[in-house]
Design brief:
This protein folds into 2 domains: 194 residues, NAD(P)-binding Rossmann-like Domain (Rossmann fold, 3-Layer(aba) Sandwich); 83 residues, UDP-galactose 4-epimerase, domain 1 (Alpha-Beta Complex), CATH 3.90.25.10. It is built from 9 helices and 13 strands. The strands form 4 sheets. It has a 7-stranded parallel beta sheet, sandwiched between helices. It has a two-stranded parallel ribbon with strand order 7-10. Strand 4, helix 3 and strand 5 form a beta-alpha-beta unit. The longest helix is centred in the N-terminal third of the chain and has 22 residues.
Length: 306
């Protein structure tokens, strides 16, 4: 099996790379990354090859089509900073380049498993279901919705091509530290509190998110690889938890008693409440999350401390 992982030096991509390396030791795995937000340290121990390039570069896709043939593409490369407001850059990177990837997949007859986002739902009423409430609040969410529309168009026109899109909710876990300010609030709060600093969150901490641990996200990707299915799926736990709860769990696990500092939210496109309906992923992929928020944070803290 020959595998291409775009954004493979990033958070989710690098975790997928190591999971594939372990499960399929004979697979030939290539990581494609421009290292704008990915980091080489995420790939220490990776035994495959790295191709340096930007997914917006059409000459890159031509080069890949001339010189390679892949069986599966895990597409994680994207601008993931939801505060970026450059609409042209966001659309070119996240949406337009996706057509070049899908055209390449057609030539190779490769399965495509790509990262969408819960950002497509904006502030619509939870629980979020795949077929409804598609009202993104920012250009990031809109770009991911356009990716889904492109994917559905290709599924319709080329039914022999297997395409799986994952609307990730709030993913956290090892190898996200190099994302900087785009790293999960769980990571940012944990590091702050481990240094004895008070946690800071938007008033009044009751905003809720469906937090999903990276191990469950990787499991979903492996299920998509192994099953003969196409479609778009929510990947989450199906349970929303507040930021106040995160701080409570961190205080308990770290043995601290740090008081929360609240401040005004500066964004007018902030999602207040996300919670996924994961019944479609459960039925068609056999996906069931294994980690509760408490279990995920407990496991994650071991990595952060190390």
């Amino acid at each position: 099996m020959r595998v291409l992982i775009t954004g493979g030096a990033g958070f989710i991509g690098s975790n997928i790379a190591f999971a594939l390396q372990e499960r399929y030791p004979d697979a030939k795995i290539y990581v494609l990354d421009n290292f704008s937000s990915g980091h080489f340290k995420n790939l220490i121990g990776f035994r495959g090859e790295v191709i340096t390039g930007d997914i917006r570069d059409r000459e890159l896709w031509e080069y890949l089509r001339r010189n390679f043939a892949f069986d599966v593409i895990f597409h994680e490369a994207a601008i993931t900073d939801t505060t970026v407001e450059d609409q042209k850059l966001m659309m070119e990177t996240n949406a337009d380049s996706f057509r070049d990837l899908l055209d390449s997949a057609l030539e190779w007859n490769a399965k495509v498993i790509y990262a969408s986002s819960a950002g497509v739902y904006g502030n619509t009423e939870p629980p979020m279901r795949e077929e409804e409430g598609l009202e993104p609040e920012n250009i990031y969410g809109f770009s991911k919705l356009m990716m889904d529309r492109i994917a559905m168009d290709y599924m319709e026109r080329f039914p022999e091509l297997r395409i799986v899109g994952f609307r990730y909710f709030n993913v956290y876990g090892p190898r996200e530290s190099y994302k900087g300010k785009s790293a999960s609030m769980i990571y940012q709060l944990a590091v702050k509190m481990m240094h004895g600093q008070r946690p800071r969150i938007f008033k009044w901490g009751e905003q809720k998110r469906d937090f999903v641990y990276i191990e469950d996200v990787v499991k979903a990707n492996l299920l998509a690889l192994e099953k003969d299915v196409s479609g778009i799926f929510n990947i989450a736990t199906g349970r929303a938890r507040s930021f106040n709860e995160i701080i409570e769990i961190l205080n308990r696990e770290l043995g601290t008693n740090l008081e929360t500092e609240y401040f005004d939210c500066p964004y007018d496109f902030y999602q207040e409440f996300t919670q996924a309906d994961i019944s479609k992923a459960s039925k068609e992929l056999g996906y069931e999350p294994e980690y509760s928020l408490e279990e995920g944070i407990r496991e994650y803290l071991k990595h952060i401390k190390a």
